[in-house]
Specification:
The protein contains 27 helices and 34 strands. It is an alpha/beta fold.
Amino acid sequence: MSAIRTTCAYCGVGCGIRATVTGPRAVKIEGDPDHPANRGRLCSKGTHLGETVGIEGRLLHPMIGMKRASWDKALNLVAKRFRDAIAQHGPNSVAFYVSGQLLTEDYYVANKLMKGFIGSANIDTNSRLCMSSAVAAHTRAFGEDVVPASYDDLDAADLFVLVGSNTAWCHPIVYQRIRARCEAGAKLVVIDPRRTETAEEADLHLPIRPGSDVALMNGLLHYCREAGALDHGYLAAHVAVPDDFWDRLGEGSDLWSVARVCDVPPSDLRRFYELFAANPRTITLFSQGVNQSLSGTDQGNAIINVHLATGRIAKPGAAPFSITGQPNAMGGREVGGLASTLAAHMDFAPENRERVQRFWASPAIPEKPGLKAVDLFRAIDEGRIKALWVMATNPAVSMPDAGRVRAALAACPFVVVSDVMERTDTAEYAHVRLPAAAWGEKDGTVTNSDRTISRQRAIFPLPGEARPDWWIVKEVARRMGWKTPFAYDRPAEIWREHCRLSTYQNDGARAFALPNGGAGGNTAYDAMEPHRWGGTPFADGLYSTPDRRARLVPVTQRPLQDPLANWPMTLNTGRYRDQWHTMTRTGLSPKLARHREEPLVEVHPDDAAALGIEDGGLARVATPQGESIFRAAITDAQRPGELFTPIHWTDRTSTGGRTGLLPRPLTDPISGQPGFKSTPARIEPVAAEWRAFLIVTGQLPAPPKCLWATRVAIPTGTLWEMAGNGDAIRLDKLLPAGERVEAVDPARGTRRIAILRDGRLAAALFVTRTGELPPRDWLIAQVSAPQVAPTLLAGRAPGAQPDRGAVICVCFDVGINTIVAAIRDQQLTDVPAIGAALRAGTNCGSCRPALARILADTRQEAVNG
């Protein structure tokens, strides 16, 4: 069977994939060498997409409550409850909360229904949580939400400035293009409070105090002005500068003041400023560390100000570049999927409202923006929203102050959830659940971070009664009485309408336009090649403002909060390299689970020592909003007084690690984006009387009830890591039926139990109070072995067996001990040599910083003897 060209399901890089079906739900995944975003490369997540396409855990039929229902009955109920709410309480009593996982066609139909026919702007998206501050900054500076850069610029830059972005982990393919340019002589500066893997390879790392980005960038702009690095010709011709802009900028922007606010050495700060001033071809890439802040919009504008004032925009290798987190966050922005925009990059100005209503021939159009995500769930909690439809997202996990979000969902009179999974934390609150198509079944388009539109094509037939999101929404719309405006039969029809709206009465004032996107009919849509809209935006110096000039936006560093008596730490949150959002997809992959098997809280050694926290021990992180337990990882990559936790774990996958319970529900006043990066917190050690792990074929119906339990995907089954207090004998209830083999050591409080079926391993439970637990790899392999080894309860193979150690390269399953041995035995001297010997680092390259660190440590140990 020939390969199907489609697009990856994960981040905003938008990598092309060639997928070859090899079985009923099996597929071979390769990078598409002809796609401009990745040129054939894939990161670890994309490489292992084939492990996530099974239908285990899928929602395959409509459900009303806990009962299976027909599509007609479910859709009629949804339509009726939304109609009733609108009739009794008005259009603003209903809301949609959607997702960057939707395709553009899905987004378009949902936005059209809510804004053009229901007549409310209460449709917002989980993209509000990751890039809405960049949207607001673009709009303030350019008059329109346009990213003025492309990936091609990465190949022409002489300096890269990464601000609040662990690019090596979160956008590995972009990072590889950056590294390739650096190997040709470009410089890399990383600005991040944490010394991440990206920072490890930087020419300069500035570990600034969280939230001090405005001071840093205002200081840079002040330095450029003093150093004669401003482009006065560009400013005069193309930029509007407020009269008092330069006077306001000078206050507190000298080198010493900025160094004090940012808490970095003045010498390092000067080096950064000198590098920037000396390299006109500079790309500044910014992501969640900038956006997820209570001043994220100002931080984005501070970056854009520097580029506009120095003329480093709309030129090869010179631009501010916001890189998005989700596969179709950009497509959602284009159709108007944010509550703060109307449609096709238009706001709620009267002329835009009239234009869109005329195009849609719609009965109503909202007069103002709707409720942004945090305000939306607050309105649900207050009883103002009577009916909510959640599509392709999991706000009970991902929203800040998730405990309050759950209370709101529980109190909402009517909740609809469209999802691919039968059980999610949010679905627990649904009155109606609708089975949606997953990646590999969807057909439509996505837009990546550099405005490249790509096709996502179906690989498999729809399982069970699952349907595309656009179909589900249009069927509800038709049942609400709007049959003709939603008479879509295929996504190509929606795409063509979207293209027509983008150009409708658009005289060039808006850069977003798809003049030829709808040409050629269904055949052209099916054969669509990746293409980037907008060319090089603003290359002519004309912006999307009334006077066609960009804006320098005055921004001021807000005062930074000193540590509080009861909450002396600062909590930062973010992603792990090999997981995605709430793990409904990546959590199915055994290989992706190996890099970070458990949710860790990262703590500086000084803080750990002062508080009695041990590396590998348990620790409770608490904030005014909630608390959760994590495994502690002590690392000097953290700044003292600061913590880091990952966002991925849910009630389905862990009894702890619930980061969403912790952040404050406070937002940027302009964008409405939550400030996930600087929540006041505290941490304390948590004692456990015993530790254990359970390996079992298949799945447990629910997490074990104990102090700490975390699920790890393994081939054909599940590994649960556990810890607790009291008598561990209750863990026996987790074991399936079968022949029981047991070994007990009362002196160490150790019990080892194996359950056999037909001579094969069905489960293994190892518990200890004072002793060590054996490595898991060999025991995991026994689940698939045709015959159980006689040393099973010893936890190791007969004879001496090498322990590969923690997995560093997930793409090729290479552990740290294997890497260290190869370095020593083969006298390897650089990262390419490690790749040649073990393949590690030769696929996505996201482990290359870790390989470099291991190489340096191993060589230093050899020197020290």
